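User: quick one, fold this
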Amino acid sequence: MNFWDYLGNRHQQLLTDAYQHASAVFQCMVVATVIGVLIGVVTYRSEWAGSLATTATSTLLTIPSLAMIGLLIPVVGLGVAPTVIALTLYGLLPIVRNAIVGLRGVDPSLVDAAKGIGMSRGARLLRVELPLAWPPILTGIRVSTQMLMGIAAIAAYASGPGLGNEIFRGIGSLGSKNALNQVLAGTLGIIVLALLFDAAYILIGRLTISRGIRV
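Assistant:
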């Protein structure tokens, strides 16, 4: 059976796996974005706190993904839980780092002007600093998403959802007639999803970042 015949026979399962893969990455990115931006907001004013946040999230990223999921299985079991926890932790570093860099890069004169017209600290953060820091934050989100697309495939090791199941099935049956087709289908599916997500982020950037800031 050639690759195209394999896709035709397995398209329904592949679409289901692709949806689960995209859903897992999307949901973990939402959680990682909220946590990462909050960490950035709390730490960007202090040099040592910002360095600590960056170092801590960098350390998490050095843990091999297979080891991370393996360590989580005895604690939270198999399935979705270790996948969500691992992906969320891996997605933090680019978002935290870019949030800190973006917030520190806001022109102090703009913040002072907002303060001068009576804005509270919370209002300055929400209406001035975060909007101006949004471009680097969005870049961090894009980088995290591309990373998690590949890492999410390892979730199949813990009976997690996604296209990694197709890849692991192919690796586990090397020598069979469809082994290469399975690995290739899962790999290409992840690449396509990564490109679609990146295109969506480009569109979001165009819709949410003013032309003046982009220039």
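User: anything notable?
Assistant: The chain is about 80% helix and 0% strand.
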